[in-house]
Amino acid sequence: MRLKLHISGLVQGVGFRPFVYRLAKELGLKGYVLNNNSGVSIEVEGEKRELDNFLVRVDSDKPDISKFFSLQHNFLNDSGFDNFEIRDSLEDGFKNISILPDISVCEECSSEITDPQDRRFMYLFTNCTDCGPRFTIIEDLPYDRKNTSMNKFVMCHDCQSEYNESGSRRFHAQPNACNICGPFISLYDLEGNLLCSKEDALERAINLIHAGNVIGVKGLGGYHLVCDATNEEAVVRLRERKNRDEKPMAVMFPDLYTAGKEVRINMLEERALTSVEKPIVIVNKLDSFSLAESVSPGNNTVGVFLPYTPLHHIMLKKLKKPVVATSANLTDDPIVIDEKDAFARLSGIADFLLIHNRGIVRRCDDSVVRIAADRQIPVRRSRGYAPVPVILPFKLDKPVLALGPYMNNTIAVGVDNKVYLSQHIGDLDTPLAMEFYEETINDLLSIVDVTPEIVVGDMHPGYNSTKYGEKKYPDRLVKIQHHFAHILSCMAENGLSPKDEVIGFAFDGTGYGTDKTIWGGEVMIASYMGFRRALHLRPYRLPGGDKAVKEPCRTALSLLYDTFGEKTYNLQFTPFQDNERDLLIEIIKKSINCPLTTSMGRLFDAVASIIGLHHKISYHAQAAIALEQLAGKSADTGAYPFVISNHMIYQLPVIDGIVDDLKAGVPGPVIARRFHNTIVNIIVDASVQLRKETGISQVALTGGVFQNSILMECAVRKLEENGFSTLVHQLVPPNDGGISLGQAVSANFM
Ligand code: ZN
Ligand code: ZN
Ligand code: FE
Questions:
Q1: Omega cis (within 30) before 387
Q2: Ramachandran region of residue 490, left (φ > 0), alpha (ψ -120 to 50) or beta?
Q3: In this predicted model, what pLDDT tens digit does every residue of 482-503 receive, in sequence order?
């Protein structure tokens, strides 16, 4: 296996390459290291264990004076290096966009703020050239203090000397500040009354959290809603006010040690939690998990992260307990970033606001990752990662703007061999979301400093992103198919060349097909030039259209009716009253408001309903997630029959098998496991069949369904056992958050 890394930061001229050379030699790895315009690129090849070791140690053992601002990594297939070498620097000649992501507070700064002898003791906006805000405070380029939201603060004598002193850690640290001259916090009630400032505000906020209040805390890329994660009542109150039924909320722990008492953390999860990006990492709860049940109700997993700003550090250190820290917004609206907004939109949600007077120039939600199949899979790529570009294996002919999809939207700007993905924008449902969308497009275009010659959108005529493109760029808009974009995105981040072809599995909830039906269980033979829809699930009906997304029992009934026809009336496995069921079967028969779909996501939902897990859901993919977690409780190796013929995957025998098992009293976890095994078998059988037809042995796994770690891990293992090489997402999300990368790349080949 091969590990590929792109590191930006203070990594040139600091003895970093010789260090990498020695580390690779020590671990017996082959490959190379080289400097380029955006930092250092490394590829190492060897056993997975040693590569994991390398990944951890390249950061933990690096020379003291080197610093990482970002580290992108992915595991790829071998490419056959003979030895390890330091290669000549690569002058790729492209302008290096000098806007960095926000960088979590470094160790030196952390120790200063906890040292009573230091002049920055307890100073909540401490930073240095190696750490601190960047992306979220920059108003204009070049990156100088006068072009940041720090421009209203005048440095005191001491800060200015540090700034001027070439030997100082704060030499030209643009946001440099201290207690005397810099930003500070204040506590307000929701009527807008100032209660107190600075230390008093922090002490009081901490007492209020202990007492069960919900505090809106202004952070780096937006406000969090914060409450005591061990206080069930407080967490329930936050949920009710935020109008958030059951969707898990993230928990910030004071440190790794306290987190380890509540959740299981393996080596790669620890690396992710402590990485410079400090994302939320989705991990399994321990049996002894003692936080409020409502943090992540009915769920085996929880999103966990560590403090990434001095404010978070000190607050959590003083609290001595974990807090829920969830984005401050109402469902579907963007996260709150300024005070005016906070008082207006958080009234009735937060009890108090802990604000500060350093402006947030652009909003940036926390990022989310998950470790599966020994890889780090992004679920949401935002703070800490944006706007670090994905490096392509080829150059784009012209600058491109990718408009993204509708759900989990990100946009992207591509130029030369780089694609800059925006921060997470979210679902484009509300006017506020569309405002943020437009802002982000203009912002990223101006950061990268290009005018797009081609603009790519999704084929779906109803997507607000596509409509935006039709209005703004009618002369240069092209549209590409959703699942093809998923596959292209997976190919691009895995460095495939324009002559490569893949068998691509794009499994998700929904996407507009070229035949105007809803696709989502697609197997494509694809290259950058185009795709052939080789296989798909047998189309089935979604009774009530969008209603079926929120009510998986509707889809369940539709699949049961397809399988059993009139015998469905005798089945017990739906939650409907007789008359309700009869009515739905009528509309299925007459095909009234029952769009056809080949969605794999909806199939997972339907199965979750048939076995009685969730008939209705309150957040996206809830039923499918529950099905995965149930499957995790069984190690059964059985599976259900299916048929692949006529370009179709026939799923009805699967439904038949599940109903047989239910009748025989087979436990839920076993059925859930068998269903997962079945989908893995479908992937492997389809791949074998298509390899025979085409000779292609590279398989790409993409789409939101591949956030399912059981499915991903088993599919990768079985495909590799069968001689396939597999491509999975590690730089951008497999869900629709990664679509904009595929769109950007596609423009080059039209
Ligand atoms: Zn620092
Ligand atoms: Zn100062
Ligand atoms: Fe999708």
A1: yes
A2: alpha
A3: 999 999 999 999 999 999 999 9
Q: Which amino acid is at 612?
A: G
**Both structure tokens of 637:** 């190796």
Residues of the chain with CATH 3.30.420.40: 537-727
Paired with 84 in beta bridges are 31
Residues whose CB is under 5 A from ligand 1 (ion)?
A: 106, 109, 128, 130-131
- CATH fold for domain 2-86: Alpha-Beta Plaits (3.30.70)
Question: Is there a contact between 421 and 732 (Cβ–Cβ < 8 Å)?
Answer: yes
Separation of alpha carbons 99 and 75, rounded Å: 27
* Separation of CA 246 and ligand 3 centre (Å): 23
CB count, 10 Å around CB of 529?
Answer: 12
pLDDT digit string (tens) for 287-308? 999 999 999 999 999 999 999 9
- Residue 153 C-alpha to ligand 2 middle, in angstroms? 9
Sign of the CA dihedral running 557, 559, 565, 568: negative
* CB of 181 closer than 8 Å to CB of 126: no
Distance 306 CA to ligand 1 centre (A): 16
Q: Diameter of the chain by CA atoms? A: 84
Tell me the CATH architecture of domain 537-727.
Answer: 2-Layer Sandwich (3.30)
Sequence-distant (≥ 6) Cβ neighbours of residue 374 within 8 angstroms: 48, 52, 75, 268
Domain with CATH 3.30.70.100 in the chain: 2-86
Sequence-distant (6+) residues with CB within 8 A of 116 are: none
Q: What is the pLDDT of residues 18-72, one digit of tens each?
A: 899 999 999 999 999 998 877 899 999 999 999 999 999 999 999 887 888 889 9
Mean pLDDT of 420-428: 97
CA of 655 to the centre of ligand 2 (A): 67
